[in-house]
Amino acid sequence: MQIRFVGCGDAFGSGGRFNTCFHLTGKETNLLVDCGASSLIALKRQGVERNAIRAILITHFHADHFGGIPFFMLDAQFFAKRRAPLVIAGPEGLRDWYVRALETAFPGSSGAVPKFELSLMELTEREPATIAGAEVTPFRVNHGQPGGPFFAYRIAIEGKVFAYTGDTEWTDAIIDAARDADLLVAEAYFRDKPVSLHLDLASLERRLGDIRPKRLILTHMSDPMLAEMDALSYETAEDGLVVDF
């Protein structure tokens, strides 16, 4: 399995990074986890074949994780000339948020009928779903309102387990989502400054013994956290980073 950090930034472009968008690929696997507002730009810059992407998994409906969907969809319809089926899956409310996002970005666009099969799949907390060959289990995390619910994901695929915290303050659901994962990608917004609704590295470190990930990569870092990267003893994401696991 391979992950490409198409974008690993926060909502505010800290470090000049693109919004969150991870590309998971394998022998048959080809899916995105999140599609933030800048993701189409990043996908094109990094030469990712958009029409090969089989599914997009959304953790929550904030623009830095979901705001790229209107751009992705219009590009697929009119420029990439997509014909392959696509699944967009995420928390309950996805179907309504999809229309709202398209109408906000490009009024009238939600009425356009795609020239490919589009499935909008609303997932249920802790209920595994098979999506594009992957077993996807969402776990509810705490990133606040409005705009919830919010998910972390555990994705079992091609003999590997990938876990992602999404955006959240510490919650024990992270343990269930990520226990013994081959790769855990975790938000680390600050190093040791606890803030409401976001995960700091110190809170994560206190529970790493319970999670026991085989590999950990930190993402979604603020400017103050990025300034401390050289002092960290963990792998950190950067835009365009490709990792095999």
Would you give an account of this structure?
By secondary structure, this protein is of the alpha/beta class. It has one domain (2-244): Metallo-beta-lactamase, Chain A (4-Layer Sandwich), CATH 3.60.15. Helices cover 21% and strands 27% of the residues. The model has no long low-confidence stretch (mean pLDDT 97).
CATH superfamily membership? Ribonuclease Z/Hydroxyacylglutathione hydrolase-like
| Tally of structural domains | 1
Oligomer: single chain
Radius of gyration: 17 Å
Low-pLDDT ranges: none
Question: Rough shape?
Answer: globular
CATH architecture: 4-Layer Sandwich
Spatial order of strands in the largest sheet: 6-5-4-3-2-1-14
CATH fold call: Metallo-beta-lactamase, Chain A
- Proportion of residues in β-strands: 25-35%
Helix content range of the residues, please? 10-25%
What do the pLDDT scores average to? 97
Q: How many strand elements?
A: 14
